[in-house]
């Protein structure tokens, strides 16, 4: 039997880009994911615009697309709730802006199918091609260096919004995460690494969206708090 893939697109007030992005993803899946049984889950995070209505319309006209509504904000909430709602063998996601080139999706999913517990996009790999504003690049690299120093991690890119995980990760690692917003990615990877789970970093093409909703300075402030908290919690995993 083919492996089942649950691929989530978390969204909050994305009426302007949702349809084009999901149609592009669905077309890619139909043409490139032969051998897998897949679903694209549009996980709506309590949007206040027409995002949910668009998602429900796409569910009717795009085979393999499902609309899923969550009454609370937070990317981590969207991912975890949508993963649990649609059981599969491999659980994955990407951001709706498709900042990470979707041409890497087959490699991402194949990595978990071949035995890795987590596959994640890596924007800092020598083979990656990245376009982003200089300030955000500097701040992102600074965050990674600080995280490496504080958390003793060897993972190159903790925040790329492009991942696939196994059922074991969903069962054993996700329940150990505390943050259900932007820090969820870092927590998931670092805890899995500390627990000895196999992780593959995949070089990607990545282009920063002009519509990015990330408020970089607020996020950095929150990350500093979260890094300190996670460092203390990791001590209990020794």
Number of strands: 9
Q: And the CATH topology?
A: Spore Coat Polysaccharide Biosynthesis Protein SpsA, Chain A
Kindly give the count of domains: 1
Largest sheet: 7 strands, mixed
User: How far apart are the termini?
Assistant: 39 Å
Mean pLDDT: 93
The global form is: globular
**The CATH top-level class label:** Alpha Beta
* Order of strands, widest sheet: 3-2-1-4-7-5-8
What does this structure look like?
- The protein is an alpha/beta fold.
- The protein has a single domain (3-237), classed as Spore Coat Polysaccharide Biosynthesis Protein SpsA, Chain A, CATH 3.90.550.10.
- It contains 8 helices and 9 strands.
- It has helices at 18-32, 51-61, 75-85, 105-113, 134-151, 167-172, 184-194, 216-234, and strands spanning 3-11, 36-45, 65-70, 90-94, 118-122, 129-131, 162-166, 199-203, 205-207.
- The strands form 2 sheets. Strands 3-2-1-4-7-5-8 form a 7-stranded mixed sheet, with helices on both faces. It has a two-stranded parallel sheet with strand order 6-9.
- Strand 2 (36-45), helix 2 (51-61) and strand 3 (65-70) form a beta-alpha-beta unit.
- It is globular, with a radius of gyration of 17 Å.
- The mean pLDDT is 93.
């Amino acid at each position: 039997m083919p492996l089942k893939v649950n691929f989530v697109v978390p969204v909050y007030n994305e009426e302007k880009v949702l349809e084009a992005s999901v149609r592009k993803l669905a077309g890619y899946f139909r043409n490139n994911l032969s051998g897998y049984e897949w679903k694209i889950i549009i996980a709506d995070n309590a949007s206040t615009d027409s995002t949910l209505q668009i998602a429900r319309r796409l569910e009717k006209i795009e085979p393999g697309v499902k609309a899923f509504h969550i009454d609370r904000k937070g990317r981590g909430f969207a991912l975890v709730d949508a993963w649990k709602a649609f059981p599969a063998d491999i659980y994955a996601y990407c951001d709706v802006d498709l900042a990470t080139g979707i041409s890497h999706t087959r490699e991402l999913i194949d990595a978990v199918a071949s035995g890795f517990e987590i596959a994640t996009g890596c924007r800092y790999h020598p083979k990656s091609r990245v376009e982003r504003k200089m300030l955000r690049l500097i701040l992102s690299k600074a965050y990674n260096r600080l995280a490496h120093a504080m958390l003793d991690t060897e993972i190159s890119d903790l925040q790329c919004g492009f991942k696939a995980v196994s059922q074991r990760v969903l069962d054993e690692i996700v329940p150990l995460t505390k943050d259900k917003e932007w820090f969820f990615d870092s927590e998931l990877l670092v805890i899995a690494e500390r627990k000895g789970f196999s992780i593959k970093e995949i070089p990607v093409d990545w282009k920063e969206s002009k519509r990015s909703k990330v408020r970089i300075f607020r996020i950095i402030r929150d990350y500093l708090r979260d890094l300190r908290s996670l460092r203390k919690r990791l001590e209990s995993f020794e």
